[in-house]
Structure formats: C-alpha cells, structure tokens
C-alpha cells in the first residue's frame, strides 16, 4: 500500500506532530489540549501536512503550533485542563500514521477516531507497536462503519 505522500516525510511529520501534541501545554500554559488537537486536525495547516507540503513538513513543533495559533486561531485558544501523560503524544503519532497509511484527510481521521475513542484505545494499543496499533484502529473504524450501515 502506498501512503498519502512520499515516505521520506512520514517520520518528520509524525515526530513533529506528536511532539507538538505533547508539548503544547508548555508552549501555551492552560490550553485545552483536546480542543487544540481537534481544532488542529480540522485545520488548513494540518491539511498542508496531509500533502507533505515542504514549508510545513519541515517546521519544528513550536513553529507549527505558533503558526496555527496565530494564523488560524487569531492568537486565541480555549483554556482547559491538560489531557495528561503521554496520551497526546501517542494520539499525534497514531493520527499522523493513520492519515498517511490510509490516505484520508486529517479531518476524516478525527471523525473516524474521535478523542474519546483514542483515550479508550490508549491502554490496550500503545505498547503494541505503531504498526499493530494502526491496524487495530483501522479494524475498529471498519467495524464501526459496518455497524452503522446495518
């Protein structure tokens, strides 16, 4: 299976997104991490990464976060409780790899795998390895789609 873009960019995009999701609480103290992740996944900036556009694919996590907050959120963000632990980082990895491997827009990824589902899947999947976790998440998406068709 071929991914959404050249595999040369996968590691960098995945690493930068996962680090950004983990460190956003340090960049913007008091930010609602779930709000940030959901808004990010639906953003134009994330769509640029869906296509590995070089300007954004090469940005470091803080650069991406600042660009997004400044340009798409008009320097405003929702305050809230931290999501906690390494869950945001794992979600960043899974969302990025899922988007690439199955070539679906990030907006669709967040709809197919909402944050409450990712939270429930963290404990059973996060130690299974990325490839296994992505397969299990895909099986879950397909199962849910089949259940909604019936």
Characterise this structure:
The protein has 9 helices and no strands. The chain has 150 residues and is mainly alpha-helical. The chain is globular. The chain has helices at residues 10-27, 33-41, 44-50, 54-57, 61-72, 87-102, 106-112, 115-125, 130-149. The mean pLDDT is 92. 31% of the residues are buried. It starts with 9 loop residues before the first helix and ends with a helix. Helix content is 69%, strand content 0%. The protein has one domain (10-149).
Task: Lay out the secondary structure.
Layout: H1 10-27, H2 33-41, H3 44-50, H4 54-57, H5 61-72, H6 87-102, H7 106-112, H8 115-125, H9 130-149
Task: Summarize this structure as a short list of keywords or feature phrases.
mainly alpha; 0% strand; 150 residues
Give the SSE string: HHHHHHHHH
Query: What distance separates the N and C termini?
Result: 29 Å
pLDDT averaged over residues? 92
Structural class: mainly alpha
Fraction of residues in β-strands:
under 5%
The number of E-state strands comes to: 0
